[in-house]
Amino acid sequence: MIPVKRISRTLAASAVVLVLAAMPAAATEVDVSDTPSDTIIVDRTSVDRALEVDTVGIVQSASVTIDFQKIDGDNCPVPETGTPYDDEIVFGLTSPTGTTVALLEEDTYDTNDTTAGRVQMTFQDGGAAFGSAPATGVYAPVEPLSVLAGEQAEGTWTVTVADTAGGDVLCYYGATLSLEVLAAPVLAGTAVADGVLGAAYDETLALASTSDAADSYAIATGALPDGLTFDTATGEISGTPTETGDFAFSVTATNAVGTSAAVDYVLTIGSAPTISATGALTLTLGKAFEYLPTIVAGYPADLTVSLASGKLPSGLTLDAVTGALSGTASVAGVYPITLSVTNGVGEAAEVELSLTVVDDAALADSSDSDDSTADAASTEDDAAVTETASTTTTSATSATSATATELAETGALDGWQPLAAGAAALMALGAALVARRRAVR
Fold first, then answer.
1. Which domain holds residue 367?
2. Between the CA of residue 403 and those of 69, 399, 410, 424, 425, what are the distances in Å?
3. What phi-psi label fits residue 437: left (phi over 0), alpha (psi between -120 and 50 degrees) or beta?
4. What is the pLDDT of residues 416-435, one digit of tens each?
5. Do 315 and 386 share a domain, yes or no?
6. What's the rounded Cα separation, in Å, for the pair 81 and 71?
7. Is the same domain home to 266 and 395?
8. Does residue 80 sit in the same domain as residue 43?
């Protein structure tokens, strides 16, 4: 009997299919085909068809489909009828490491049977049992394909097609090898989300859509910001960052096959700005004005300051970077406004501010009018006080004269009392005059 070798690559056309054990969901499917330009006639010999697999990884499962026809004659592809010797057919598969699996052995079929024509037989663990003659379908190989699981996929796989006796030739049209291969993981390299200082953060690094699963992850270079941790089992970054900045690091992923190439990431932790200002400001109409609110930039420091509500007095402008209010107001009035500042992190910060524009010239005119009114009132008061003082003085003088005469006649001291009373009255009137002037002004 001609030796049977085992192949693990797809020989396109109608072929024998070989399947290994069940493949993990993360494995990659690799198909390789062999389609000869001319039909290969096999008669009392064997033919090896090489299939090259370029994928690096570990075989999880395999299947092989062989496209062929056994002829009751010595030429392909005729005749289509007759009773060929199907018991002469032998198929096998050999891996790159030399492991051979017998797919179909000699004497599996009856010596003579009506030809089934051209068929495509798939060899796969768990397939159906062989019938009395070759037929298209999925069949369990003579030896289990599960022995190939765990071998390296990369390399040359060989499908062996043999006919053990002369006379009735075997026509080979092609084969297809399908492998499920567990390869080293591949990180997608998509950018990680930015974080905010003091806010919970959670991000899991993604694998490429075609990547096999990873068993572990590692930070190859760089470091995460303080407050965040890296889960080496899942690739998850989580925690609450306690510092701001741009943090560069690289990560690798590993499974049983190998380790991925390192992928670079940059994680930015930002903080929102704050703004504060004097609640009320007074501006003079027509005079230059400038005011700078207090802004703590946060991270990054690229700020945008805007007017969230209200309207600036005509002649004033707002600096969108520094938040400075400057210019020369041209219209008096009260202007309530709200300033907003943002750097793209979190919510915008706001502060309310009231701007009052006053007209000094109008205030001066009003003051002059008030002074004139006060002076007129003061003049009238002065006249009244003078008159009162004159009357008081006259009375006091008369009283003094009478008292002097009385003293001359009697020598008594009691006569000085009227004079003292007159003096006190004059002092009271003077104080009243001063107080009145102050009140008016």
1. 362-440
2. 167, 6, 10, 17, 18
3. alpha
4. 344 444 455 445 545 555 45
5. no
6. 8
7. no
8. yes
